[in-house]
Amino acid sequence: MNPDPFDLTGRRALVTGSTQGIGADVVRTLAAAGCDLVVSARDRDGLEQLAEAVRAEHGVRVAVVPADLSDATDTEALATSALAAFDGLDVLVSNAGISVPQRVVDVDAATWDRVLAVNLRAPALLGSRVGRAMAAAGRGSIVNVSSVAGSLALAEHFSYSASKAGLLMATRVLALELGPAGVRANSVSPTVVMTEMGQRVWGEEAKAAPMLSRIPLGHFAQPGDVSNAVRFLASDASAMVNGVDLLVDGGFSVA
């Protein structure tokens, strides 16, 4: 038995949305734990730069597979290529997500469809295809990055909240069906994370103040708060954790 249950040496992980924010931090956190990585996003140049830096810093293998997760065909191809990169995957982190703030009365079909495609359809397809391969191997961990907006309504987040709520239930079904084959599926739900996207949506003090007032710890999350939760769920330290949504919200949901 590995004396360090958080150690990921020799594991192989796919991380979507790898080039910035939470995704880039997850990549570095998993690499620091010894994990080989398939990194994916739309920006090939950004992926290549990230891969070079991670290889140099941590000495792990890093494969680059660009993909546009708003396209179902591209998503299916990502699953195939990621599984082939290192002859299988032990960890899937579906992190890529988009948010387009809109009032309910202003929502348009194109925005709704794009948000649901990236935030829900893509992780569902990846969970299905990668989960099937993990089940055949008899082990694996799927971690979906959701949001407190999936369980608590937020104004101007109609499509985003709907997509994240769907992701929470999709994760539970993955856990139910894949668990008997030794594959765990869990989600992480942070409050506002101060990434570039978080700054863009919540950077204004007047808009942030009401949200901050509902967080007992008094501050928003940092990318590392989410990455450490992902590492826990990817590792043997969470070997008996399946179908759980791990809140990383500073107490927002209990206030």
Attribute tags:
255 residues, 7-stranded parallel β-sheet, 8 helices, globular, 46% helix
Could you please describe the fold and organization of this structure?
- With 255 residues, the chain is α/β, with parallel strands linked by helices.
- The protein contains eight helices and seven strands.
Please provide a brief summary of the model:
The chain has 255 residues and is α/β, with parallel strands linked by helices.
What is the topology?
Layout: E1 12-16, H1 21-32, E2 36-40, H2 44-58, E3 62-64, H3 72-85, E4 91-94, H4 109-137, E5 140-145, H5 158-178, E6 183-190, H6 196-202, H7 205-212, H8 223-234, E7 245-248
Parallel strand pairs: 1-2, 1-4, 2-3, 4-5, 5-6, 6-7
Helix pairs in contact: 1-2, 1-8, 3-4, 4-5
Structural class: alpha/beta
Helical fraction = 40-55%
Based on CA inertia axes, which overall geometry fits?
globular
Q: Give the N-to-C terminal Cα separation.
A: 40 Å
Mean pLDDT: 95
Question: What is the ordering of alpha helices and beta strands?
Answer: EHEHEHEHEHEHHHE
Number of strands: 7
What percentage of amino acids are in beta strands? 5-15%
Strands of the widest sheet, in order across it, are: 3-2-1-4-5-6-7
Query: What's the alpha carbon Rg, rounded to whole Å?
Result: 17 Å
Ranges where pLDDT stays below 50 over 5 or more residues in a row are none
